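Crash report, auto-generated. Payload:
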Amino acid sequence: MSLFARLAETARLMVGLPDYDTYCRHVADHHPERTPMTRAEFFRERQQAHYGSGGGRCC
Amino acid sequence: MTRHLPWIALALVGAASLGVIATVRGEPVNALWIVAAAVSVYLVAYRYYALFIARAVVGIDPSRPTPAVRRGDGLDYVPTDRRVLFGHHFAAIAGAGPLVGPVLAAQMGYLPGTLWILAGVVLAGAVQDFMILFISMRRDGKSLGELVRMEMGAIPGTIALVGAFMIMVIILAVLALIVVRALAESPWGLFTVIATVPLAMVMGAYTRWLRPGAIGEVSIIGFIGLIAAIIFGQSVAESAYWGPIFTLTPVQLCFGLIAYGAIASLLPVWLLLAPRDYLSTFLKIGAIAALAIGIAVLAPPLRMPALTEFAFTGAGPVWAGPLFPFLFITIACGAVSGFHALISSGTTPKLIASEGDAPFIGYGAMLMESAVAMMALIAASILDPGIYFAMNAPAAITGGDPVTAAAAITAMGFPISAETLANTARDVGEATIVSRTGGAPTLAVAMAEIFSTILGGPGMKAFWYHFAILFEALFILTAVDAGTRAGRFMLQDLLGLASPRFKETKSFLPGLIATMLCVGAWGFFLYQGVTDPLGGVNTLWPLFGISNQMLAAVALMLATVVLFRMKRERFAWVTIVPAAWLVLCTGTAGLMKLFHPDPKIGFLAHAQVFSDAIARGEVLKPAATMAEMGRIVFNDRIDAALCALFLGVVAAILFYTVRTCLAARRIAQPSVQEIPPMLGAAR
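Recovered output after restart:
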């Protein structure tokens, strides 16, 4: 993985967005019968999960 | 042996630097000595102590599947590269705390704070973060409350939850108070902060409908908007029409913030919370990096003495009380912060790819936060001590204007002229810097000093000052919003124990009631702090410190219980020593805040002074009426009750810890409730 790609992934995970490609790979490997969420659906689902649960930030 | 040689050399560098810091008197010490000492201590501590704890004490097993491996779903449970996860974890633990506490602690000189930050992080803070991460990682990423319940029982679990909720309330109140102190009577600052609300909403709409997921893009747009708001803010502040509209008193701001907290925490997260968190997270990382580079390049001398007389008398103007125990609760985040136990048992354990990564993430990220605290301490110490004390002493001491402030601070032994105070205020584009308590403005003046020397010259000072204020206010407001939501869920959990209807987190009414209760609770303490003549920081920061360190003690006691139940009690000193120290500090501080005869320190003594005056029919300053006198007494008693509650939580958890440890000793085999390694291998 290039340095820039890794930095981008780090920045996205800092605000609660995991890697989309990893998710797609997981669905393909473990649940081939399911259709993975689109990139936009994935983003919305993760955003709601990260910020809507009330966790995550320190003083 | 040869592989240890570089580490021995590093340890010698650290020891020599500490020697310089501790022994040089009379001439200014360069900040880089502190940097060198800190970096050496961190590296040596990581190489030897962190790995000792990981390998010998808890027996990290890289072949054992982590929750991310066992339950991988591509969403919550994802095996993540350790460097990527380090960034995630660091961003989640580092907030305003490590920037504010050390600034307040600088009133005793830089030496006590430096030593406590170093010793605290190595022996307590980083140990706690790592241990809780480890414990949660072996239990499917369960939260702190659930962990206490699993290993110690239902009653201590509930007690820990009540404690965590009260901490949340105090944290929100104290963070909001810092924002109030930084933005009151500052039209430039207030305008830029208010401008972030519509800006975030535009960003939210952009990521919702136009380009979902384009976080990098929208953050760049937002950043340009922020810079524009800072630049434009100067014209707004100078405008005869708009200037006064954005000039609010602390009390007006207090009610504004309470209304903001209530509304913002009920809005959909994509509209305000998420987009503003993108800005505040990236700005925070950027500003911390810039500050580190600034200090390294500038190599400023420390103008604050190593020790001021307040380290010996305990009569400092910023906060009252002797060095022990109050220094150890004033600097919480950066040395040891109980709140991290909630983060280390949150998302991080679900993302960890291998048990072998745990020391790097748990222990390492906390060392990094400690470095942030160290930079804040350096920043406060490079200022002229006269400016530092004029900014941080409450108006009751300074009289609120440069002339009276200069006289009062000079009389304290830190000579400063009224012109210097007025000029400093003009340089940073503010009406006054006198009694701008709360730590944030002090840090902003120091950051403006450092940044403008490197970039832009004196003419840019005002820009950098407001940039620093904006960066602090931005992530505090995000924390207020996110914290109110978190507090709401905690409260629904607790109320759900009494009435199950409250558990329905999806239905509207219980959520609304819990939100209002939560906002009402922190709003109460915020209002009390804002109207406090001693600036509020004096009352609320110790309460915050006591509660935060108390949670750390609870977390370390849980870790002790787990070590006993793993049958590794011969290593339990690793958690017993810091837990005992924290129980001692919070216990002593709590009892002093309750019963100390000096009304500046003891809540009940303060209440007594005012209730005696009421009985005599006398109105004491700062109260103007009898009703206000009554309110002061009432507030003192609430604070005292809260203090007693915190003490009760510590005592109760201590009792259950001892009981569970003794029970574990009587059983011959391990009794921890870990997910067995075989279960993971079977899947």
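Post-recovery validation: Chain B touches chain A through 58 residues (CB under 8 Å).
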